[in-house]
Structures are given as structure tokens and as C-alpha cells.
Amino acid sequence: MIIIDEAAYISVDLFFETICPLLGMETAAMIAISTPLGPFNYFSKLIQLTEEDGTPFFNVKQLGTVCVECLKLPTQAEMLACTHVTDRLPPWKSGARYEHIYKHLIMLVISLFEGGLI
Ligand SMILES: [Zn+2]
């Protein structure tokens, strides 16, 4: 059993040179958990990977805290400011605290983006 936490953040070399060969073993299984880190990294491509017939290559469960409408916003900072689906938070997170923290921190990130500091 291979368990990768924050899988989008590990080295691509580590994934392809070490983990992929292990997945070739008959009894290998992998659980990879991560924030996707945007649509253009290897992890996002992995979770979208399909067989030749179009069936998903991996069994992917996606949980998100950004609503469908906010996913259409032009920047990742604006998307992450979504507070419309706090009912999807895992039970160990507080909706009120989540909204309070993200409302303030995301506004800071947006202002840093707009000021060219990020
Ligand atoms: Zn939203």
C-alpha cells in the first residue's frame, strides 16, 4: 500500500521513478491525497487520466470547498475566496472559523496579487 499525502507537491521524478514501478506490482495499491495545485501539474493530469475506452484510470474522489460558480472566476485567489459551500467542510473544520480565516487571508492574497507582490 502506497499512501502519498500532498501528492501534487511531491517531485515528478519521485512519482515516475519510484512510485510508478511499485504500481506495477500485482498487489500494489495507492492512495494519493492532495490539493490539486491548479490544472496544469502532473497530479491534476493523473486524476484526469483515462484508459483507451475513456474509463477513468484511477478511482478518484474529489472533495472541494469552492462552488461551481466560483470555479468560473478568472483567478485562483478569487476562486479560493468562495464561502458558499462551507457545509462541505470535513467534520473537524469549523464553518464559521473557515469563513472568517479565508475571508481575511484571501483578501490579503488578492491585494498582494494586485500590488504585484506575488
Ligand atoms: Zn462560491
SSE map:
Layout: E1 2-5, H1 12-23, E2 30-33, H2 42-48, H3 76-80, H4 95-114
Parallel strand pairs: 1-2
Bound molecules: zinc ion.
- Structural class based on helices, strands and sheet pairing: mainly alpha
- Sequence of strands across the biggest β-sheet: 1-2
Q: Which percent band covers the strand fraction?
A: 5-15%
The number of distinct structural domains comes to: 2
Mean pLDDT: 83
Q: State the order of secondary-structure elements, H for helix, E for strand.
A: EHEHHH
List keywords for this structure.
binds zinc ion; mainly alpha; 118 residues; two-stranded parallel ribbon
Overall description:
This protein has two domains: 2-47, no CATH class; 70-114, no CATH class. It has helices at residues 12-23, 42-48, 76-80, 95-114; strands at 2-5, 30-33. With 118 residues, the chain is mostly helical. It contains four helices and two strands, in the order βαβααα. The chain is elongated. The chain has a two-stranded parallel ribbon with strand order 1-2. The model has no long low-confidence stretch (mean pLDDT 83). It is 37% helix and 7% strand. Bound molecules: zinc ion. Zinc ion (ZN) binds next to loops. Residues 66-67, 69-70, 82, 84 line the site of zinc ion.
